[in-house]
Amino acid sequence: MRRIAPLGLRTRLIAAFLLVAAICAVTTAALTYQKARNAILKQTQDTAVSSLREQIEQQTTRLPMTQDQLQAVVTELGKRGKPHPWTVFGEYGSLRASSSSAAPFGPVTDTLRRKVRENRYGAFQRVENGSGDPYLTIGIAAVFPHGGVAEPTGAVYFASVPLTDESRTVQAMVDAAKQGAVPAIALAVIPALLAARSVLRPVRDMRRAAQRLGLGRLDTRIEVRGADELAGLARTFNETARALEHSVAELREAEVRARRFASDVSHELRTPLAGMLAVTEVLDEDAEQLDPDTAKALRLVSAETGKLAVLVEDLMEISRFDARAAELNLDDVDLAVAVGKTLERRHWDDGRVRTDLPPGVRARLDPRRFDVVLANLVGNALRHGGAPVLITVRTGPGEDGERLLVEVADSGPGIAPEVLPHIFDRFFKADAARTRSAGSGLGLAITLENVRLHGGTLRAANGPFGGAVFTLDMPLEAHA
């Protein structure tokens, strides 16, 4: 199922603003409609009730009433209807009369008759005829004064007042509210855009500042505008960036001092180490003529001096990489010849290392650094993996041209999962107890830096049938 991309903050702000505007417009229109409708209907209702009561009081009623008398009163009341023409119905006992021969007694309901009997001041009810037209039906009982008290005559008059004009007025109000709501919401887009812009401007500034900060421009700062929450966030960002810049500057200074120290120490150690190596070589030749204990001590001194020399050379090499002083001396190289020379120099052509080298594969690379890369990978495979070690060379297409793929696979137990993420770390050793190994702990780190210098990558993994596999991926045409 395809996920719908979330809406941006700008879209959500505008939508929220328009939603609030729409709710306010609808609520205002609804309240206005309700108040105006009630006011219009109440005015019509009060006028009709007052007028009917006044007209009834002006009528002379003789009791008991006859049908003709009831009809005459009803007809007279029908002529005097205000504010609209009335249809008047009269009831007196079993007698019934209407001011219109065409009008039935439908508007007069039993509920209205009951209310009129219960309330001597009259009652009213809003009803609709068969066509759906609204009517106001008013009922008032006729009374006569007797001894200061209004006594009922028994006659009840009902007036049915059409509310067509009022209904049209209310409908016109509804239409006006509908027609006005759409432009109002459309006009609300303008302040919504302005509000979204004022809110999003500092957010955009902060995003760009964060991107610049991520690119290493630690002097990035945001202009603080106003004193609201966004301004507070901008100030916090500036304070954080300032503290980060200070901390990174201190770390860089410490790193530079550490690199200079390692480089200086390595350089200073090279001269005495060269003399020590020359002496130990001479002493190694005469070790057989010495007593066993002295010979053993001499060989130990010679071996440890050799390890120290290797460590010093590796430290100087890694210092050049850290100082970005390493350079490529490119040459056109036949891969089969280069691999063969590397194995021959280190006496690995005795069957412990096998090769799968297609003929005629040539690459433009630094021969010395490629030799270091291959030697470190094969030496690591023989030392920590197991023979036989297989070197496979392949070429293949890549996004930026032809690529050189070199695999070095051993026959050992493989690399532990917890070790894999740290395999190229400096001075990292998978076995903490193996502190006296022949390596300096920098071999794979130097290998990785040499591969990166060629524009390539180096990956470590475990083969499907056991053993570690190191895969070198670099362009056939490296650039200095």
Description:
- One of its GO terms (cellular component) is plasma membrane.
- Pfam families: HAMP, HATPase_c, HisKA.
- Its EC number is 2.7.13.3.
- Keywords: Kinase, Membrane, Phosphoprotein, Transferase, Transmembrane, Transmembrane helix, Two-component regulatory system.
- Helix 5 packs antiparallel against helix 6.
- About 1% of the residues have low confidence.
- The chain has three domains: 162 residues, PAS domain (Beta-Lactamase, 2-Layer Sandwich), CATH 3.30.450.20; 93 residues, Orthogonal Bundle (Helix Hairpins); 145 residues, Histidine kinase-like ATPase, C-terminal domain (Heat Shock Protein 90, 2-Layer Sandwich), CATH 3.30.565.
- Strand 1 and strand 2 form a beta hairpin.
- 52% of the residues lie in helices and 18% in strands.
- By secondary structure, it is of the alpha+beta class.
Keywords:
480 residues; alpha+beta; Beta-Lactamase; Heat Shock Protein 90; 3 domains; 12 strands
Quick take:
With 480 residues, this protein is an alpha+beta fold. Helix content is 52%, strand content 18%. The chain has helices spanning 9-58, 67-79, 110-118, 164-214, 229-285, 292-322, 335-345, 367-385, 443-453; strands spanning 87-92, 95-98, 123-128, 134-146, 149-162, 331-334, 353-356, 362-365, 389-398, 401-409, 457-462, 468-475.
The helix content is 40-55%
Give the strand order of the largest sheet, numbering strands 1, 2, ... along the chain. Answer: 2-1-5-4-3
CATH topology of the largest domain: Beta-Lactamase
- In total, the number of domains comes to 3
> How would a textbook summarize the main sheet?
5 strands, antiparallel
Shape, principal axes of CA atoms: rod-shaped
Structural class: alpha+beta
How far is it from the N-terminal to the C-terminal residue, by CA? Answer: 48 Å
Order of helices and strands: HHEEHEEEHHHEHEEHEEHEE
The CATH class of the largest domain turns out to be: Alpha Beta
How large is the count of helical segments? 9
Using the CA coordinates, give the radius of gyration.
Answer: 52 Å
- What's the total number of strands? 12
Strand content: 15-25%
